[in-house]
Design a protein that fits this description.
It is a single chain. The protein has 205 residues and is α+β, with helices and mostly antiparallel strands. The chain has two domains: 53 residues; 146 residues, Protein Transport Mog1p, Chain A (3-Layer(aba) Sandwich). Helix content is 41%, strand content 22%. It has a six-stranded antiparallel sheet. The longest helix has 32 residues.
């Protein structure tokens, strides 16, 4: 009788182990059977959700631009003026792919004014070099990166005109910042220094 019980016990263990293994195999098959495209789409949706959480709303953009001139300071350059509170630019609607007629939050001339771009002007001591910083707001996430750095030399163009400007554009979340230097004696290090000043300012947010 004891021998029979022992045999039955062994059989039960084998059956249970077999069922568990089968369930694990089925789980693995289920995971593997999910199409790669579907898994990729799910990952993209998760990333988009994370990006949405990083978007700065319009009031945050207003606060940021209000503090920019006090925070971005470069030796040898003085903040001269800005468009804060007075800038309402009307555009040809075609320039916005038909989206708006004014560079404002809702694309219309509104009160109070809600411009989606602000411009800041800096000059060196002898006014031979002008730095223009333009901050622009978008409701859509862009990312943190450099978007554009112009290189105008080495082309079949008017070098005298080409060397008058140096431009860098960077993005931060859903905002863009363009630093443009205008001078007859361009110093690319200055453009980069102002850009780094903006980046340091944004990293502290």
């Amino acid at each position: 009788m004891k021998q029979v019980k022992k045999v039955m016990f062994i059989i039960i263990v084998i059956v249970l182990f077999g069922c568990t293994e089968k369930e694990n195999i089925n789980d693995d098959i289920s995971k593997e059977s999910i199409p790669i495209e579907e898994r990729t789409n799910n990952d993209s949706e998760i990333q988009e959700h994370k990006n949405d959480d990083q978007i700065l709303n319009y009031p945050a953009f207003q606060v940021l631009t209000k503090n920019l001139s006090d925070s971005v300071k470069i030796d040898g350059y003085t903040f001269k003026d800005s468009s804060m509170g007075i800038d309402a630019i009307r555009i040809d609607e075609r320039l916005s792919f038909g989206e708006r007629q004014w560079i404002t939050e809702n694309g219309k001339l509104e009160s109070p004014l809600k411009s989606t771009q602000e411009t800041f002007f800096y000059e060196n001591s002898d006014q031979s070099r002008l730095i223009i910083i333009t901050a622009a707001y978008s409701p859509n996430y862009i990312g943190d990166n450099i978007l554009y750095y112009n290189v105008n030399s080495g082309y079949d163009i008017n070098e005298n005109l080409a060397k008058l400007n140096d431009v860098i554009t960077i993005s931060f979340r859903n905002l863009t910042f363009t630093v443009m230097q205008t001078s007859e004696d361009i110093d690319m290090d200055v453009t980069q220094e102002f850009t780094l000043g903006i980046i340091h300012f944004l990293e502290d947010i």
